[in-house]
What does this fold into?
Amino acid sequence: MEFNTQAPNPSSAANVFWPLLLLLSALILWFAFQLMQTIKLRENLAVIHSSQEPLIQNAQKIRQLTDALALGTLNLSKQGNPNAALIVNALAKRGININPQQQTQPKEAGQQSPAP
It folds into this structure.
């Protein structure tokens, strides 16, 4: 059995260095690119979230008005108004029940889910 006692060729070490350097620099650039894309995406989502806030508040106001109208119709029905009773019965057939105990109030600004 013979062992190779020759010193390693310095040019073979240099042959490994440059491809490895190129690979690592490409990997670092890829991670930097992905990080920038993620940051931009997060900023865009925050803008979209804040632009939807007025729409949510308007929907909550409409919900309150609709609930108040339904509650008023239920009260009229209980007082004997036949037209209100007809409306309440038609809503019940469609699966919409009016809960007189329900109080819908919009969430306060501090209770809303945090922005992403």
About this structure: The two ends are 67 Å apart (CA to CA). Helices lie at 10-78, 82-93. The chain has a mean pLDDT of 84.
